[in-house]
Amino acid sequence: MYLYGWNVERDPTEADKWFQKALRKGHTRLLADLGDYTREGWLGHDRIKTRALAWYLAAAHFGIIRAPGAALAMSFHIPASATRAAEGSSKKLVAELKTFDVKIYPFP
């Protein structure tokens, strides 16, 4: 809603806040979408390919079907050092997400 400005003023910062709340509730299917939004710069900041790759890698960890392909495609467009940085960020993100209360979509 806030991302696109549906019935409210478009506010990428508020949208990001709601995405984070959803992740903390176990909505891991959102991870690949966050990769898309970050890749395209829709969350109010510049396109950050390393951050987008980290979202895709985390999504792949949680079994999101389209995430491995998106991560592979993204990895061709950034340097190897950035890919390693994204892998590290992804591992931290996965570890953090596993600590949240996830009653809706249990982690594998």
Structural class: mainly alpha
Estimate the helix proportion, in percent. 55-70%
Total strands: the figure is 0
Low-confidence segments: 104-108
Helix-strand string:
HHHHH
Distance between the termini: 29 Å
**What sort of overall outline do the alpha carbons produce when their principal axes are compared?**
globular
Which terms summarize this structure?
disordered C terminus; 5 helices; 59% helix; mainly alpha; 108 residues
In short:
With 108 residues, this protein is mainly alpha-helical.
Structural features, described:
With 108 residues, the protein is an all-alpha fold. The chain has one domain (12-97). Helices cover 59% and strands 0% of the residues. The chain has five helices and no strands. The protein has helices at residues 12-24, 30-40, 49-61, 67-75, 80-97. α2 (30-40) runs antiparallel to α3 (49-61) and α3 packs across α5 (80-97). It is globular, with a radius of gyration of 14 Å.
Write the layout of secondary structure elements.
Elements: H1 12-24, H2 30-40, H3 49-61, H4 67-75, H5 80-97
